[in-house]
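Handout, section 4.2: multi-component inputs.
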Amino acid sequence: NAGVTQTPKFRVLKTGQSMTLLCAQDMNHEYMYWYRQDPGMGLRLIHYSVGEGTTAKGEVPDGYNVSRLKKQNFLLGLESAAPSQTSVYFCASSTTQGYGYTFGSGTRLTVV
Amino acid sequence: AQSVAQPEDQVNVAEGNPLTVKCTYSVSGNPYLFWYVQYPNRGLQFLLKYITGDNLVKGSYGFEAEFNKSQTSFHLKKPSALVSDSALYFCAVRDIGGGGFKTIFGAGTRLFVKA
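Output:
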């Protein structure tokens, strides 16, 4: 019963490098989300998806892209990493009712 | 626009005493309200939710929360705190009237329970 799995768990990037964070869920949830967590700011929504092949912008989408080619996977990409993107990234999924999210364990990203 | 506020950055309580973690919200329609807990180096875990019905909702680990529509509050409570309750707690709101797929999280309140 894995729930939501995020890879990698840790990563250090140099400014300008690119990377992709992978989120996989095995609960057949329709909706998936990417959040970033910064001290004192709680969680802020980056992008979300309400189904396979669909994506939408959240509060802080700049500098990020996403794709949902398969229902169970939601990818977050950074094309040209910046120090301001140093954060902990969480993926979550939910049913269409959105009665509660299931979160992954997070990816700690440092951009130097 | 929906928003949620957790007015206390930190709450300190002695083990065995009751605890309250405060949350207020603002939505244009009717809210779905949630509490989550985060332990160090872990993702958020769902504690409880208010959707409709009884204003007092019970959740995991002995926690409960009371929905107060007139005060737009959803405070988290527990009658007797445990040291193991020490963690970061997030209140969250989803505005169902806004047709939202998005849940907004508060900044979090760190709870310290002293033995």
